[in-house]
């Protein structure tokens, strides 16, 4: 009894941390080696807290490590947390823990097995990776699916760290065979791991072939697994092209129920699979599958704004392929008062695309709605609404309708200050659509523009100014004092942007018969000598030549001046067919939000610090010791001044990487011949490309040096 | 795949982070605050994804924090990322109540632990709170039990990777009960002259399950698409009550519902998680008339005063009552010295929102209340300041009533082993959604 009590006391005793002059790290270290378990645990927690705050507590590594062998899983977790954090920045320290990892990987508790294998496969040191082989193989065959699902991911981690080793060990074959696993979660993680490997090196695994082999299995697993696993499996199915319409039909049947999943990402992933397979089956517009997709898309509009944004950007892509899909759901996309601005803008875009140009009632409703938007207060939103009004008018196209919209825009232009730019562009678009035949509309716009005083300061954007000058050139008879108006622009010619400059050039040449010759001369002079825009200069030279040709070139000049632009049929931009197909394949990926296919963007290449590759164990141990000693030195520094802590720590880390870099430079010449060193060379190359980063490190490390010198 | 998860404060400074892959340098996060600033500086459009130097920053905002992930490639599934981040917030909320800067700082250990379980190498893993709680438990709780725990070591529950991954075995309740809440939120946009421009009902069925064992539940609704029972499908057609059946659109189910069974047989069957969860939600876009309508006349006598007359009417059944009605009427920002005349509720001027707030505790169906207000306007005004149009916002709750008319016909509970009696309880409530607005003329 007494023994028991004693034990309890010892277990529960917590020694309160003292405030001592020797600093926090000293206290923590004392706590870590305390004879009382609870005190040790508290100390580990405190250490992790310091770590979270960004302080460098790597010098405590050996003391923390002593606590890893505990039977208390919670404590073990804490230690692993610490180790994982420093695995990245101080991989050499982890060598000290390798034996524990190996033995933990055989623990009876699956949680511990997972932690060990997860941590081990993250440490970027070859020596440790070599120890990985046996535990990894064992855990890949573990009887617990929880462990297996962790192990398959570890293969991808290992591959990212050391491709050669991964192939050598042959774990890739184990990974591929895990696709046959009876547990859907393991299958999903295997797919994720394989896609990751495939993305970094498509030659190693034949992912498309593997997917093809397992399609029916994936379809079965879909109903059995978590939402995240479903997304991964659906993603794999979207990569697969069905052999024939029967198979496509089956895939569609199996995937359709998932449109009703509560997780929006599952819904979008399902839509992607359906859209991929739709062209293969004979589905007419009335087919129920379309109404199902439509209502699934609509349901995405009641998700958080970020998700709505993704959905809206994707809907834009889908709509170009299937324009009829959502025609009946216009009202869903009406802007809500409390939508964030980025959602509002996308909604306006969708509204105009969605509206059925043969449905007058719908179009009229939308005009009223857009007019309301134009009376809101966020400037970007109002601009977009005004543009949308003109887009809608051009889309509906009928003159009476266009006239009505023009009235609205003219009214807006008069009542809302600071939106003249947008209104003018919108009005010019309308005129360009109807052509110059509609006298009353032309008169309306021109009299409005005529009334403006100092146009060059009223209009802000290049595009609006360009439109204004175009207006002058098209309908010179409707403006008084046109010479003065153009002259105002000439005065500021060099400050204008290229669109305005070009437009000015065209207009003055067009009107050269009615304007004094000096004006033309001045402009051509300016445009050939005082602009940096090559296009403007070329155009000016061309005009100059044409105009100065002697004699019988009246025809040419007339042609030049009196040609009229073709009427515009739409002001909505579209994707090219190739881009559209690519984007449809990449739905729900970030690329589909940016409308930039994955292939167009080079992957960000991290400057991987591979310097530790290929070092010997002794050397690593030596480095580990070095590192600790160095950090300990800094501990003392830390106690002096709290403010400079983080700065010193950051630069210390940088300094050490710099050292490693130096090592790297020493290393390479000797081993250049060996092909395995390629990555190192590459990373060196990249370093020289990203010049600013190393130089920063340089300056930082020299700062440290200065600080150290000071002390 | 995502590379890391960062919790940042409202300036973009890191509070806590977990890195899953090393394809992005740790220094990349330092760019985030300035990216945010830049975006803010350029325009007021800040999309939830930013790019810098080939690194993709994807983030959501919650309370006073940003939750951010980064990716090195455009091939990251952004829908999954946002969906996961929101799930993460949900899970954390179950552990720490309010997810905000302070609570994250206070609970970093448990958050690290959760981040480790919920995501591995950028692939989302287990997010079912009911199951996570089985093997990741609050510290405080553990400390008391730690003596006992040493024998009974924490292990991942075996159900975790099975097909019913959301419910542990061996749950026992003395009294087996299930509570159903049918909540409908009404979103509505009404023009100044009373025309409904857009209306939708967002409904959800929330379940609180206090049931033992592994019960199999079957829910019957009066939906046209959902058969109320297997055999009476044809009978229902002939039934005079057919009119009462409604058609729900965009049904979305919790993952415990067997989706293919619903797709093929239109039966909602499921094994529920223990405790609270949202079983399903739906959307209906039928035209509905305003439940709370208010007719507002605003007269602006520029440079002297503004007069507001408002009549509110509860257009609901006589025996129903709307509770906690709040009507927020915008007034110009420079208005002052309010004078009110009103008969019901309480009326006050809220300068920080530039609005008048009219609160009515309980508003009986068919009743009509009104108020008149007058506010002073400064005699000197800057004529160039554009008049900003803001809508009137209305909030309310109506218990014992659903707008769509949806009804729970039955909830059958079948537990094959224990065979107990159970008691389902059903509550209905209609409330205003986050966008119930009336435009001003």
TrEMBL record, chain A:
Family matches, as Gene3D superfamilies: Leucine-rich Repeat Variant
Region annotation Disordered: residue ranges? 671-711
Q: Which GO cellular component term is one of those annotated?
A: membrane coat
The chain positions of domain Clathrin/coatomer adaptor adaptin-like N-terminal read 21-549
List the biased-composition ranges (Polar residues): 701-711
Listed GO MF terms: clathrin binding
Alphabetical keyword list:
Membrane, Protein transport, Transport
- Any idea where this protein resides? Endomembrane system
According to its UniProt record, where is this protein mainly located?
membrane
Q: Which domain of life is it from?
A: Eukaryota
Biological process (GO) annotations held by this record are:
intracellular protein transport; vesicle-mediated transport
A Pfam family hit: Adaptin_N
Q: Which PANTHER family match?
A: ADAPTOR COMPLEX SUBUNIT BETA FAMILY MEMBER
What family does the database annotate? Belongs to the adaptor complexes large subunit family.
This chain belongs to the protein called AP complex subunit beta
From TrEMBL, chain B:
Q: Which InterPro entries match?
A: Adaptor_comp_med_subunit, AP2_Mu_C_sf, AP_mu_sigma_su, Clathrin_mu, Clathrin_mu_CS, Longin-like_dom_sf, MHD
Question: Localized where?
Answer: Cytoplasmic vesicle membrane
- May I have one GO cellular component term? clathrin adaptor complex
Q: What is this protein called?
A: LAME_0F07888g1_1
Transmembrane feature ranges: none
> Is tRNA processing given among the entry's keywords?
no
Q: Which UniProt keywords apply?
A: Cytoplasmic vesicle, Membrane, Protein transport, Transport
The record's family statement is: Belongs to the adaptor complexes medium subunit family.
Entry annotated with the keyword Transport: yes
Question: Which CDD domains is this protein grouped with?
Answer: AP-1_Mu1_Cterm (cd09250), AP1_Mu_N (cd14835)
Q: Where does this chain mainly localize?
A: membrane
Q: Which residues form the MHD domain?
A: 175-439
Source organism per entry reads: Lachancea meyersii CBS 8951
Tell me the Gene Ontology biological-process terms attached to this UniProt entry: intracellular protein transport; vesicle-mediated transport
């Amino acid at each position: 009894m007494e023994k028991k009590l004693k034990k309890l006391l010892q277990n529960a005793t917590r020694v309160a941390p003292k405030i001592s002059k020797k600093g926090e790290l000293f206290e923590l270290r004392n706590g870590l080696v305390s004879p009382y378990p609870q005190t040790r645990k508290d100390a580990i927690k405190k250490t992790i807290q310091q770590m979270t705050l960004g302080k460098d507590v790597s010098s405590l590594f050996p003391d923390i490590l002593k606590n890893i062998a505990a039977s208390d899983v919670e404590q073990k977790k804490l230690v692993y947390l610490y180790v994982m954090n420093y695995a990245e920045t101080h991989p050499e320290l982890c060598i000290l823990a390798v034996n524990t990892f190996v033995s933990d990987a055989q623990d009876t508790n699956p949680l511990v097995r997972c932690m060990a294998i997860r941590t081990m496969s993250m440490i970027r040191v070859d020596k440790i990776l070599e120890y990985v082989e046996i535990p990894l193989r064992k855990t890949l065959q573990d009887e617990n699916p929880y462990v297996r699902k962790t192990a398959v991911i570890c293969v991808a981690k290992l591959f990212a760290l050391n491709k050669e080793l991964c192939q050598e060990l042959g774990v890739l074959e184990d990974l591929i065979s895990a696709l046959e696993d009876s547990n859907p979660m393991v299958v999903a993680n295997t797919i994720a791991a394989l896609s990751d490997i495939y993305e970094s090196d498509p030659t190693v695994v034949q992912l498309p072939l593997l997917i093809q082999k397992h399609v029916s299995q994936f379809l079965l697993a879909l109903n059995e697994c978590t939402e995240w696993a479903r997304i991964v499996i659906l993603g794999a199915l979207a990569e697969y092209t069905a052999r024939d319409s029967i198979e496509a039909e089956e895939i569609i049947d199996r995937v359709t129920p998932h449109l009703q999943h509560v997780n929006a990402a599952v819904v979008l992933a399902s839509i992607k699979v359906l859209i991929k397979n739709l062209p293969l089956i004979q589905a007419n517009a009335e087919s129920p599958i379309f109404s199902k997709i439509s209502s699934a898309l609509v349901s995405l509009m009641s998700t958080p704004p970020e998700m709505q944004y993704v959905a809206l950007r994707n809907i834009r892509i889908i709509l170009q392929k299937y324009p009829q899909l959502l025609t009946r759901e216009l009202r869903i996309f009406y802007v809500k008062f409390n939508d964030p601005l980025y959602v509002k803008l996308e909604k306006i875009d969708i509204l105009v695309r969605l509206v059925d140009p043969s449905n007058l009632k719908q179009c009229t409703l939308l005009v009223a709605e857009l007019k309301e938007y134009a009376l809101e207060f966020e400037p970007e939103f109002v601009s977009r609404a005004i543009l949308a009004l003109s887009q809608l008018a051009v889309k509906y196209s009928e003159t009476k309708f266009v006239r009505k919209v023009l009235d609205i825009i003219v009214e807006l232009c008069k009542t809302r200050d600071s939106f003249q730019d947008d209104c003018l562009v919108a009005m010019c678009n309308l005129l360009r659509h109807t052509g110059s035949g509609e006298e009353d509309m032309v008169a309306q716009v021109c009299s409005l523009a005529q009334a403006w005083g100092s146009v060059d300061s009223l209009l802000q954007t290049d595009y609006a100014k360009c439109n204004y000058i175009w207006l002058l050139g098209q309908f010179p008879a409707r403006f008084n004092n046109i010479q003065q108006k153009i002259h105002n622009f000439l005065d500021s010619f060099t400050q204008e942007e290229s669109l305005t400059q070009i437009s000015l050039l065209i207009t003055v040449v067009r009107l050269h018969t009615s304007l004094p010759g000096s004006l033309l001369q001045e402009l051509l002079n300016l445009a050939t000598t005082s602009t940096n825009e090559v296009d403007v200069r070329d155009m000016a030279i061309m005009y100059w030549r044409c105009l100065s040709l002697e004699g019988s070139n009246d025809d040419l000049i007339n042609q030049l001046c009196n040609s009229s632009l073709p009427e515009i049929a739409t002001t909505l931009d579209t994707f090219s067919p190739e881009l559209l197909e690519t984007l449809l394949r990449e739905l729900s990926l970030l690329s589909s939000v940016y409308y930039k296919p994955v292939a167009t963007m080079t992957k960000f290449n991290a400057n991987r610090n591979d310097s530790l590759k290929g070092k010997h164990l002794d050397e690593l141990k030596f480095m580990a010791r070095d590192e600790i000693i160095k950090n300990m030195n800094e501990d003392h520094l830390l106690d002096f001044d709290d403010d400079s802590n983080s700065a010193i720590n950051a630069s210390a880390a940088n300094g050490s990487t710099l050292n490693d870099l130096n090592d790297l430079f020493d290393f390479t010449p000797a081993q250049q011949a060996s092909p395995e060193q390629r990555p190192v060379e590459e990373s060196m190359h990249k370093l020289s490309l990203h010049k600013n980063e190393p130089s920063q490190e340089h300056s930082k490390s020299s700062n440290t040096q200065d600080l150290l010198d000071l002390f | 795949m995502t590379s890391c998860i960062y919790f940042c404060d409202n300036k973009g400074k890191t509070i806590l982070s977990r890195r899953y892959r090393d394809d992005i340098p740790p220094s990349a996060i330092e760019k985030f605050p300035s990216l945010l600033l830049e975006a803010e500086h350029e325009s007021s459009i800040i999309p939830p994804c930013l790019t810098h130097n080939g690194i993709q920053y994807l983030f959501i905002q919650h309370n006073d924090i940003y939750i951010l992930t980064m990716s090195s490639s455009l091939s990251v599934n952004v829908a999954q990322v946002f969906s996961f981040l929101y799930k993460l917030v949900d899970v954390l909320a179950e552990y720490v109540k309010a997810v905000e800067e302070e609570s994250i700082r206070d609970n970093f250990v448990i958050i690290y632990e959760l981040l480790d379980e919920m995501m591995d190498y950028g692939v989302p893993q287990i997010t079912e709170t009911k199951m996570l709680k089985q093997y990741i438990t609050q510290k405080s709780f553990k400390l008391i039990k730690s003596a006992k725990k040493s024998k009974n070591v924490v292990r991942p529950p075996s159900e975790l990777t099975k097909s019913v991954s959301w419910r542990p075995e061996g749950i026992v309740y003395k009294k087996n009960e299930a509570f159903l809440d049918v909540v409908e939120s009404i979103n509505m946009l009404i023009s100044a002259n009373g025309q409904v421009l857009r209306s939708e009902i967002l409904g959800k069925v929330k379940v609180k399950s206090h049931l033992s064992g592994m019960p199999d539940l079957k829910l019957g609704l009066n939906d046209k698409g959902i058969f109320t029972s297997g055999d009476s499908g044809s009978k229902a057609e002939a039934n005079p009550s057919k009119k009462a059946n409604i058609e729900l659109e965009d049904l979305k189910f919790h993952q415990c519902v067997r989706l293919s069974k619903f797709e093929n047989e239109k039966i909602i069957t499921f094994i529920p998680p223990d405790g609270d969860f949202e079983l399903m939600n739906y959307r209906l876009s039928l035209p509905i008339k305003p439940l709370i309508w208010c007719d507002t006349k605003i007269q602006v006598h520029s440079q002297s005063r503004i007069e507001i007359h408002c009549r509110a009417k509860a257009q609901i059944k006589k025996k129903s009552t709307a509770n906690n009605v709040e009507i927020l009427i915008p007034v110009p920002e420079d208005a002052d010295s309010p004078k009110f005349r009103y008969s019901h509720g309480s009326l006050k001027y809220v300068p920080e929102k530039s609005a008048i707030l009219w609160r009515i505790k309980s508003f009986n169906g068919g009743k009509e209340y009104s108020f008149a207000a007058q506010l002073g306007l400064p005699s000197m005004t800057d004529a160039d300041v554009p008049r900003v149009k803001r809508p009137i916002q209305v909030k309310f709750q109506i218990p014992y009533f659903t707008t769509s008319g949806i009804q729970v016909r039955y909830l059958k509970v079948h537990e094959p082993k224990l065979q107990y009696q159970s008691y389902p309880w059903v509550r209905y409530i209609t409330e205003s959604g986050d966008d119930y607005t009336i435009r001003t003329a």
